[in-house]
Amino acid sequence: MFCCFLWIGFFFSSFHRGLAQGSSSNTDPGGGKSPPLQIVVKLGSDAMLPCDAVDVNQPSDLLEWRKNGSKSPIFIKFMNFKPHIDSRYSRRLHMINSSVILISGAKASDAGIYRCRTMQSGSESTILNHGRWVVLKVTAPMPVPVPPFFLKKPLDKITANESDSLSLLCLVGGTPEPEVEWFKHGASIPFERASVSPGSRLTITAVVPDDDSGRYQCSSVNSVGQLHHVFEVTIQRKN
Ligand SMILES: *[C@@H]1O[C@H](CO)[C@@H](O)[C@H](O)[C@H]1NC(C)=O
Ligand SMILES: *[C@@H]1O[C@H](CO)[C@@H](O)[C@H](O)[C@H]1NC(C)=O
Ligand SMILES: *[C@@H]1O[C@H](CO)[C@@H](O)[C@H](O)[C@H]1NC(C)=O
């Protein structure tokens, strides 16, 4: 076991020397050679994150992935050793091949900036290394549009007594959430005694038989449809 750790230690120090040389020779092993790759996946689907290897025909000796500049890698695979995967990803992160990892069932929290590094030791035992920035975006599915519909069937005829208050309710659902507007005889309702509360209840206080009787309409509209309902309102005169 000790021998192997020594070997790993040696390779890591070479790797880091390689990185240092790389940066001085204008090849940023952190991904400066390739532009950042943007990957967009839907919530719950699989995200494949590729890392550039210098020579795709030759397996990498080291593949390392970090997220959001974290000090500890989320994935590290060194030569033939079993890959080390951050415990938070243990069931969801898979190695596809020497340069590609896959995050299954992408969550919103998987979005972020990933950085990989690879290392290949060539035949002349030169250490080559390369890397890449990958920006992962996770998009929420677009909700299925639903035209407005009544959550509760509104009444058709409403009777109120003079000087009481009158309340009309139009409970509407839909996606996107519909707006509800109120009209009386086709015109919007301007009078001071009327108010509209959330949940689309129209309230008129101290009703007057001649002024407040009539046809009231609630109209609800969203991007995929519209819905209207007419209330016949009768105000009963006090004897
Ligand atoms: C790794 O897998 C990806 C996706 O399947 C593929 O495009 C790529 O060519 C593979 N690379 C190597 C080195 O096998
Ligand atoms: C990583 O960075 C992205 C973008 O700045 C941010 O939205 C996300 O919450 C970060 N994730 C973690 C786990 O820090
Ligand atoms: C109106 O007043 C009458 C008599 O007071 C009462 O029986 C009736 O329930 C009232 N109607 C409403 C809608 O409040």
From TrEMBL:
Signal peptide residue numbers: 1-20
InterPro entries in alphabetical order: Ig-like_dom (IPR007110), Ig-like_dom_sf (IPR036179), Ig-like_fold (IPR013783), Ig_I-set (IPR013098), Ig_sub (IPR003599), Ig_sub2 (IPR003598)
Annotated ranges, domain Ig-like: 29-129, 148-234
Source organism superkingdom: Eukaryota
UniProt KW keywords: Disulfide bond, Immunoglobulin domain, Signal
Transmembrane domains' residue ranges: none
Keyword flag Cytoplasm: no
PANTHER family: BASIGIN RELATED, CELL ADHESION MOLECULE DSCAM2-RELATED
Protein name, UniProt field: Hemicentin 2
Protein's organism: Desmophyllum pertusum
